[in-house]
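Sequence and structure are kept together here, with a separate record for every protein. An example record follows, reproduced without changes.
>
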Amino acid sequence: MSKTSPGEYGQLMARHEKDIAELTLTLNDEKERYEEKELGKEKKNTTQKASDDDAQFETAVELLEEEIKMTEIKFQEAMKEKRPQLSEEEYQRLLGEHEIDIDRLRKQLDGNKERQRLALLEKLAKRKQKRELKSNEEDERRRLLDALDDAQFETAIELLEEEIKMAKVRFQEEIGSKRK
């Protein structure tokens, strides 16, 4: 079994590290974009924007997953080409480094998915809170209208009672003036 020259080994490692660095940058960029969009979308069309952003985030997650798969495939192909030239020890070391890098990327991806899940739960909680607040406001408005109706009714009764008293007084006055 022939060994890989230091130059070939360096090239192989450089290519692998470049792929991992690109994936990490892409993942971080997508994370930043997603967080910026989450902060920026508050008022108008929140449900539409939220679903669009969620769809974009899902697409970004899928793309990153695909990139991780492609990096894995590229590494495997590179290993197929260079494997005969690598010692078992070098191969195991490269494979271990590659697996550590891939695991790190997967953990970052899982972290993003968890942040997305938490953001979704927060949105749902806010919607529920808004619905409850709106429902409470509607209930309060109904109570106020009912109280207003009750107050108006009582006022109308009081006015009618006052008119009845006035009519009695006028009647008494008319009778009193006719008796004289």
The CA atoms of residues 54 and 116 lie 8 Å apart.
